[in-house]
Specification:
With 274 residues, this protein is of the alpha+beta class. The protein has two domains: 146 residues, 2-Layer Sandwich (Fructose-1,6-Bisphosphatase, Chain A, domain 1); 107 residues, D-Maltodextrin-Binding Protein, domain 2 (3-Layer(aba) Sandwich), CATH 3.40.190. Helix content is 32%, strand content 27%. The protein contains nine helices and 14 strands. The strands form three sheets. A seven-stranded mixed beta sheet has the order 3-4-5-6-7-8-9, with helices on both faces. The chain has a five-stranded mixed beta sheet with strand order 11-10-12-14-13, with helices on both faces. α1 packs antiparallel against α2. It is globular, with a radius of gyration of 18 Å. 41% of the residues are buried.
């Protein structure tokens, strides 16, 4: 994707999509909320009528504007159109938060080219703000209609860093004992996509999560990178593989955190095939 004219189309589309999504949410906000558990047994993994409504809305917008592109969403089946372009949708990232009225949930949409996330949108309807990248090196937050450039806190030191982390109940006690140094450094809870965008604003210096699927992380990767952040899996692989994710504001912090996470570097609770 090196055509400047073509590349400009996508951030403009995502910017307008965020505006449209917030208008749409206001229209359906008083609709009945139906909640089902995706897991017939085991952990509560909710899907709601709002998840499906949001995904249908997003799919319709993409299909009208880019009918030849593939769409991969969390709630509906994928049709392979044999295109190099794929849209990855998480209609509600943080459905558990949504169900209990926590405003930290978001809509996540990314455009991938040949499997690589190029442009992303993280929209927070209840917080009246959204995040997107204009290019590989420029990203913005728009809050209450005012746009501001994003920049990670590159000057942060390891000893003074603010670390947000969450294992979502996926790590056993024995596994957590292998990364005690990480646990000791965790000062802030991780709130799904909100932690990543807080990182992009320089409010947090590192984020660790371990159950990201492609629709949980792909939209955030280009925003993180355009803000100056570093992202990888715990085994220092491309974050597009999903699963375990580490985000840091500079190489010193990132490399040190990778060392602390090394005992669990091969842990794959989520990932691209789950």
């Amino acid at each position: 994707m090196n055509d400047n004219k073509t590349d400009k189309i996508y951030p403009e589309f995502l910017n307008q999509l965020a505006i449209d999504l917030n208008i749409f949410y206001k229209k359906i906000i008083n609709s009945n909320l139906n909640v089902k558990n995706k897991n017939k047994s085991g952990k509560f993994n909710p899907v709601t009528s709002f998840d499906k409504a949001f995904e249908k809305f997003i799919r319709n917008k993409i299909n009208k504007r880019f009918p030849s592109h593939n769409i991969i969403g969390e709630e509906f089946k994928t049709k392979n159109k044999k295109s190099d372009y794929s849209w990855i949708i998480d209609p509600i990232d943080g459905t558990k938060s949504f169900v209990v009225g926590n405003p930290t949930w978001s809509n996540l949409i990314s455009l991938n080219y040949k499997g690589n996330p190029q442009f992303g949108l993280a929209n927070f309807p209840e917080l009246n703000k959204y995040y997107f990248n204009q290019s590989a090196n420029t990203a913005y937050v728009v809050k209450n209609g005012k746009k501001r450039k994003l920049r990670a806190n590159k000057k942060s030191t390891f000893n003074q860093m603010k670390l947000a982390g969450e294992f979502h109940g996926w790590l056993s006690l024995d596994q957590q004992l292998k990364i005690l140094k990480v646990l000791d450094l965790m000062q802030f809870p991780s709130s799904d996509a909100l932690s990543y965008v807080n990182f992009c604003e320089g409010k947090i210096d590192s984020v660790i999560q371990c159950v990201n699927k492609i629709w949980d992380i792909h939209a955030l990767i280009p925003i993180i990178k355009a803000s100056g952040g570093i992202a990888s899996t715990w085994s220092n692989k491309d974050p597009k593989e999903a699963g375990t994710i580490l985000v840091s504001s500079n190489k010193i912090i990132h490399n040190k955190m990778l060392g602390y996470l090394k005992p669990l570097s091969e842990f794959i609770p989520g990932g691209i095939n789950n």
